[in-house]
Structures are given as C-alpha cells and as structure tokens.
Design a protein that fits this description.
alpha/beta; elongated; single chain; five-stranded mixed β-sheet
Length: 196
C-alpha cells in the first residue's frame, strides 16, 4: 500500500511541476528597425510585427513605438537584497553579510545592475545606497550600525507569529515605497525561515 501511495504522490508532484512549466512568460523586447543603409525606420505599428516562439505565432500583448530622441531605455532592473535579521540567527546574518560583500566586490565592484541592501530587525530597517559600484555599496554598509533582534526564540509559537508579522510588515513597506519608484525591482530575501 505504501508503494501505491508513493506513486500517487509522485504523479501529483509531477503534475504540479508540469503545470508550472506551462505557465506563460511575459517578455519585454526592445526592437530597432533600420533600412538597408542603417537608418531607423519610423511609423511602424503593431500590425507590422510578427512574434514567433518555436516558429509558432504568439500574440503581442502591448506595443509602444518610440521615435528619435524620445527613445530612452527603461531604467535597469534594480536588485534589492533584503536580509531578515528577525528570523535569522546572528551567526547566519554574519555569514550572509560576508558572502554578500564577496559578491559585491567581484570584478572590482562593477555590477551589471544597481544593487542595494536592506537589513531589517525588530527595531528598524537599515538600507544602503543603490549603485552599480559594489565597493560603494560595501563602504556604505560598513558605515551603518545594524540593529539586533530582541525577540527571543524561547517565546515559542507566539514569538514565531510575531516575527512573521514583522517580516510581512517590512515587505509591505518595501513594496509600497518601491511602487512609487521608476523601473523594475528584483528582491532577494535572505532568511533562515521564510516569512510565509
């Protein structure tokens, strides 16, 4: 009987994975059309383009034509590294910080996109500048004084619920703040225990 149950669970998990794999992906494509001499072609409309995926036509969900000097690129994706010191032990926060500094310092500190760090505890959140210069982000971080968590793990499930609420509140505040800022954001949440 355990074999049948194991097979059923395996099939169920496989169907979940295959279901996720079939989800659609949104992509943004910036296209520049030039004539034979290399000059930009203007006046194109959505109907002038065909989007193919594995040789199959796909629907273009949105289209925006931009001409000449008005053609400015979107701001780069900003990576925000959020370190949860509420749910993570001090030793693990120190290890995470050391690894983040190694990442930021690679290639002489040159980063592909702007990166900022946020460390939050039960007292407040401490953030760094957002920069493509990893060395500048590290220097800013080293000037900050990070707060430590005061909620003890000995508080049992009530303490766990309170820590989870703090994490969710911090994430909500971050989302509210970033919603008013231009560009896309990539948030990397570093925590021993996820807030969900």
């Amino acid at each position: 009987m355990s074999t049948r149950c194991g097979v059923w669970i395996y099939l169920f998990c496989f169907s979940l994975v295959s279901g996720f794999a079939q989800q659609s992906r949104d992509m943004t494509l910036d296209v520049v059309v030039t004539d034979k001499s290399g000059k930009p072609v203007s006046g194109l409309e959505q109907k002038d383009f065909t989007l193919l995926d594995n040789k199959q036509p796909q629907k273009i969900l949105s289209f925006q034509a931009v001409a000449g000097a008005a053609a400015t690129a979107d701001p780069p994706v900003e990576a925000i590294v959020l370190v949860d010191t509420v749910n993570t032990e001090f030793t693990n926060v120190a290890i995470a910080r050391k690894e983040i500094e190694k990442f930021l310092g690679r290639s002489g500190g040159a980063l592909a996109q702007p990166v900022s760090l946020i460390f939050f505890s039960d007292g407040a959140a401490t953030g760094t500048i957002s920069s493509r210069d990893g060395n500048a982000v590290i220097a800013d971080l080293n000037q900050k004084q990070l707060g430590l968590r005061t909620i003890g793990r000995a508080q049992g499930s009530y303490g766990g619920f309170e820590r989870m609420q703090m994490s969710l509140n911090t994430l909500q505040k971050l989302a509210d703040f970033e919603a008013g800022m231009p560009g896309r954001k990539l948030v990397v949440w570093i925590s021993r225990v996820g807030p969900f």
